[in-house]
Amino acid sequence: xxxxxxxxxxxxxxxxxxxxxxxxxxxxxxxxxxxxxxxxxxxxxxxxxxxxxxxxxxxxxxxxxxxxxxxxxxxxxxxxxxxxxxxxxxxxxxxxxxxxxxxxxxxxxxxxxxxxxxxxxxxxxxxxxxxxxxxxxxxxxxxxxxxxxxxxxxxxxxxxxxxxxxxxxxxxxxxxxxxxxxxxxxxxxxxxxxxxxxxxxxxxxxxxxxxxxxxxxxxxxxxxxxxxxxxxxxxxxxxxxxxxxxxxxxxxxxxxxxxxxxxxxxxxxxxxxxxxxxxxx
Length: 281
Known about the structure:
2 domains
């Protein structure tokens, strides 16, 4: 059955707009990519000049093993912070979210509204008291302190996210398990969490990406250059008197590719989790 003419016209126009926007968005990325895989003398007059064209990975090697601020060490430090910074709040917030979704208790609605309000709290308003708090706890300039801060910031939005996801899950299986004598803890870990796996992965990816991309908190709480994360090391690769654009762009792509790989690996679960709110289970 052929598509009506007006629908075909709308389809062609919408696709043309989408492709145009996508290509325009890719142009800056192509410039960064070309600068990272070509010698500097070939891009100094513009990366779009393709003659001569020499592919090289030297910029990536130089960025990874930079003599002062190797991006390889920054990637390792970022992983040390981002992985527990995503897992810890996910575990704690999932427990709280399930309680909000399934149980009734005094001031439940007020408490949930307070959690939602916390999502609107700017980081800049709390950075000074957080600094003194970490200093008094002897966690300043440590990975543990930054992981704790990221975990605390992630609790509010993950609780909100997972509460909505748990609310969409069917309760029939839980009620049947409860009749069979299963405890609340067993129902949560054996039944609810497996059903909520797409939502959990979606929240984990979003939190991991936010922690990985953070610059502000790391800049305030990490002063030891050996502990600098990847986002802190990027601007330092510019140098004081000379900017090696090949090294800088190669380091930028290495930092950017990690969350892209995480999304690519868990894309199926991520999409399923994000549409779970609007899909009846």
